[in-house]
Write a structure and sequence with these properties.
- The protein is mainly α.
- It is 76% helix and 2% strand.
- It is built from seven helices and two strands; from the N terminus they run αββαααααα.
- The longest helix is centred in the last third of the chain and has 28 residues.
- The radius of gyration is 21 Å and the shape is elongated.
- It starts with 5 loop residues before the first helix and ends with a helix.
Length: 171
């Protein structure tokens, strides 16, 4: 197979002489992936920062800063869960967030550069999580879970359609 030419790399922006209007959506997906990657880094750093500290006291401080009712149900649940967090769990969470952020950043950069491998990677990684999201939705339905499931399904179906369309255009 010959190496990819500039025309091959820009095939995502043009098909049979027509500008691909949906490339804006591809950039939106890339931006979303990059944002999530940065967010996961921050969560990972935050988790590692909480190691060797009294997590319950820190959560109590956050409740005060956010002006939540310290005797309310939400504050009680947060404090109860914070009491069960160990350094091992925080270390695992921090490391898992760094791995997850690397995946998001790789996808985001690849999509921003209109790389076909990034489209396939995003189809696979996002598509593999759809059954889990569906299970969670049936287990405990919320509006947020419905929105996340729908957004991820739209991303997968859009990228599948895009890959097929570009492949057909190149033949």
């Amino acid at each position: 197979m010959p190496p990819a030419t500039t025309a091959d790399r820009t095939a995502g922006s043009q098909v049979k002489g027509k500008k691909d209007e949906r490339s804006t959506f591809l950039m939106l997906i890339a931006a979303m992936k990059l944002f999530k990657g940065v967010l996961m880094i921050l969560v990972g750093v935050g988790a590692l920062d909480l190691m060797h500290r009294d997590v319950q006291a820190v959560v109590g401080d956050w409740i005060g800063l956010l002006h939540l009712n310290p005797n309310g149900r939400f504050a009680h649940i947060l404090l109860l869960r914070a009491s069960t967090v160990s350094d091992g769990k925080l270390e695992f969470l921090g490391c898992a967030m760094f791995v997850y952020s690397a995946l998001f950043l790789i996808e985001g950069i690849g999509l921003a550069m209109c790389r076909r491998w990034a489209e396939y990677m995003t189809i696979i990684t996002t598509g593999l999580l759809l059954p889990l999201e569906l299970y969670e939705l049936f287990r405990r339905p919320t509006t947020v879970r419905v929105v996340i499931l729908l957004l991820n399904a739209v991303v997968v179906f859009y990228l599948i359609h895009r890959v097929r369309r570009l492949k057909a255009a190149m033949e």
